[in-house]
């Protein structure tokens, strides 16, 4: 029987707890792979916060996503995903591989995001988080999500 891979797209402000959630989830569900643009930035530039090679970073994100879904692996995309335009291509890849596409939506609570971000090793500038919050777009089923999980 052909299995259907699951694609989880995390949606949350920096600092809100996405990477923490992803590592716990994978600890409980070891048959899932995480693709995290911050980790790829670190691989390429040596600095997870370096935004200068984003084209290359996202090319790798999509290459890896394609390869993993092709081999029926379950994938978690650990990025902010706060705009529909950020999610569109990920959803298209999921559809292409007939994956079950799940939005994991973290509460866009600006004060929690800012205070947890300040406790983190790598801090994102506050104004970046505030701007993301202003541009936040809620995930909806019509984008192509089969399920929306609220964290
Ligand atoms: N549920 C939580 N309650 C309290 N602190 C948390 C929680 N989740 C994450 N944190 C802490 O908040 C900071 C940011 O978490 P992180 O997972 O790196 O966020 P993100 O990946 O969304 O930027 C870390 O210091 C982490 O330990
Ligand atoms: Mg993170």
Model description:
- By secondary structure, the protein is α/β, with parallel strands linked by helices.
- The chain has a single domain (6-150), classed as Rossmann fold (3-Layer(aba) Sandwich).
- 46% of the residues lie in helices and 16% in strands.
- It has helices at 18-28, 37-45, 54-70, 84-96, 110-119, 126-135; strands at 6-11, 32-35, 74-77, 100-105, 147-150.
- Adenosine-5'-diphosphate (ADP) is lined by residues 12, 14-20, 116, 119-120.
Observed structural traits:
151 residues; alpha/beta; Rossmann fold; 5-stranded parallel β-sheet; 6 helices; globular; binds adenosine-5'-diphosphate; binds magnesium ion
Number of strands: 5
CATH homologous superfamily - what is it?
P-loop containing nucleotide triphosphate hydrolases
Task: List the helices and strands in order.
Answer: EHEHHEHEHHE
Summarize model confidence as the mean pLDDT.
96
The CATH architecture can be given as: 3-Layer(aba) Sandwich
CATH class: Alpha Beta
Q: Which helices and strands, and how do they pair?
A:
Elements: E1 6-11, H1 18-28, E2 32-35, H2 37-45, H3 54-70, E3 74-77, H4 84-96, E4 100-105, H5 110-119, H6 126-135, E5 147-150
Parallel strand pairs: 1-3, 1-4, 2-3, 4-5
Helix pairs in contact: 2-3, 5-6
Bound molecules: adenosine-5'-diphosphate (ADP) and magnesium ion (MG).
Summary of the model, kept short:
The chain is an alpha/beta fold.
């Amino acid at each position: 029987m052909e299995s259907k891979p699951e694609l989880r797209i995390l949606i949350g402000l920096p600092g809100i707890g996405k990477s923490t959630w992803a590592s716990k989830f994978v600890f409980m569900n070891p048959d899932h792979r995480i693709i995290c643009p911050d980790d790829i930035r670190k691989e390429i530039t040596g600095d997870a916060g370096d935004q200068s090679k984003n084209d290359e970073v996202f090319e790798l994100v999509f290459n890896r996503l394609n390869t993993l879904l092709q081999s029926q692996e379950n994938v978690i995309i650990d990025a902010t995903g706060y705009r529909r335009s950020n999610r569109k291509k990920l959803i298209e890849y999921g559809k292409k591989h007939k994956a079950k596409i799940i939005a994991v939506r973290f509460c866009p609570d600006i004060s929690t995001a800012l205070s947890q971000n300040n406790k983190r090793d790598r801090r994102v500038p506050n104004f970046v988080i505030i701007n993301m919050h202003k541009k936040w777009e809620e995930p909806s089923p019509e984008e192509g999500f089969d399920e929306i999980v609220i964290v």
